Amino acid sequence: MIAGRRRVLGAGVLALTALAAGGCARGCTSSRPPIHLNPSMDDQPKVRPQTASTFFYDGASMRQPVPGTVAIGGLREDEAFFTGRGAGGQFVATVPVTVDEALLERGRQRYVIYCQPCHDGRGDGKGILFQRGNVPTATFHQDKILNYPDGQLFDVITNGMGLMPAYRWPILPADRWAIVAYVRDLQRDRLARAASAPTAAAPAAAAPVDTK
Fold this sequence. Notes:
By secondary structure, the protein is an all-alpha fold. The chain has eight helices and no strands. The longest helix is centred in the first third of the chain and has 26 residues, at 2-27.
């Protein structure tokens, strides 16, 4: 009988303790971090970008790449493709990739985004800068640019020229070549239409006037 009462009393004490602990866990404040029964990856030692560290000798948490490391896609062995120049340092004459409809369409899309605001849709240099600010912009149909090797056009896109900024970072090399191919297509189309346009007939010579 006494043992039974003790068991009941013990169970009651445990219940009250659990109730008090549960109430405090939900309502009380604590400076300690919450307890994770299964911490998994929620709570682990780590560092955040650009933070200091007392562990590494240089005091930085971010580590430098091993000397000589080449990032994926960063091995640029094809000099003509990545610089527009051949082995001798001269500009390559033609686009070093296959020019097909897919490349021209990609070039047209990139041209509309990056080139058309200044050079307009036909490459005449009458874009928004010229229309609103009268800023002189080169036309692709002048003899100077018509005679550029393709590699030189690529170089201008990469490094800029005059008022034109460099597009080395916003435009990938493959897209720069696509733009070059599209510009050449614009030039060929303009030359073909000019050649097929009918020429105006020369005015007939006036008949001599008899003054006798």
